[in-house]
Amino acid sequence: MKKWLLSIVVAISLVSLLGCGSSEEAATQETTFEKVKREGFVTVGFANEAPYAYATPDGKLTGEAVEIARVILQRLGIEEMNGVLTEFGSLIPGLKANRFDMITAGMYITADRAKEVDFANPEYSIGEGIAVVAGNPINIKSYEDIVNNSDVKVAVMGGAIQFNYLTSVGVKESQIHIVPDNPSALDALIAGRVDVIAMTGPSLQAVLDAANNDRVERVMDFVQPVIDGVNVRGYGATAFRKGETDFVDVFNAELEKLKESGELLEILEQFGFTEQELPGDATVDSLTK
């Protein structure tokens, strides 16, 4: 009788243990999309870079990339966005370290970055811009002008694509001054620590508009850089951890609806973009071949 009871207890214990194991295994198999949909909120990483993603003076997270993501996430049943401000160069490491669930920073799609994260399809496309001291005393109108004058110093945000563009055309790394964000680049220009600052056109315009400082100016006849024979035009997108295919797929499906309805352009226009900055038919696959 005792042996029979002992067998029952052992059997029940084994079933309980197996049940716990199955529950724990199911929990670990939950994808990020399933988690944020269940919880109703998502944690997003962003850099303080207007007009893509930035915090307003009252602490509200906004920007082109943020508002596009906000609309898409709400339509996926995820109402709340928890923004985590970090330096641009820390976005991908932070995503991989699970500090946030996705990146909404208007990050350019590149083949190298696509090895580390899974991008959604692009939300916008954009060209480059530079600003100099008012009057452009050194006559800088292209990246090649920086190459041809080794005394010129240029400021770019750490982790931004402009570093790659500049070095690709022959600018020496010793000429490049790395700053944590775009407002810091403008500060360096105003203070005379650098001669030129480089960033995307909309970012540059946003920084200059916010500063409203007549000691600096945008170079309106700037010649767009040509890298390896190709005129540079960047495409920005939201990024997810590698393997988050379900999240990327549903995000892309809603993004396509925004493009077809015209809502994407309406959101972009709120942040100084125009029809010229629409991504067209470009996809992450076509941009990372």
TrEMBL record:
<protein>
    <submittedName>
        <fullName>Ectoine/hydroxyectoine ABC transporter substrate-binding protein EhuB</fullName>
    </submittedName>
</protein>
<feature type="domain" description="Solute-binding protein family 3/N-terminal">
    <location>
        <begin position="41"/>
        <end position="275"/>
    </location>
</feature>
<dbReference type="GO" id="GO:0033294">
    <property type="term" value="F:ectoine binding"/>
</dbReference>
<dbReference type="InterPro" id="IPR014337">
    <property type="entry name" value="Ectoine_EhuB"/>
</dbReference>
<dbReference type="GO" id="GO:0051470">
    <property type="term" value="P:ectoine transmembrane transport"/>
</dbReference>
<feature type="signal peptide">
    <location>
        <begin position="1"/>
        <end position="26"/>
    </location>
</feature>
<dbReference type="InterPro" id="IPR001638">
    <property type="entry name" value="Solute-binding_3/MltF_N"/>
</dbReference>
<keyword id="KW-0732">Signal</keyword>
<keyword id="KW-0564">Palmitate</keyword>
<dbReference type="Pfam" id="PF00497">
    <property type="entry name" value="SBP_bac_3"/>
</dbReference>
<keyword id="KW-0449">Lipoprotein</keyword>
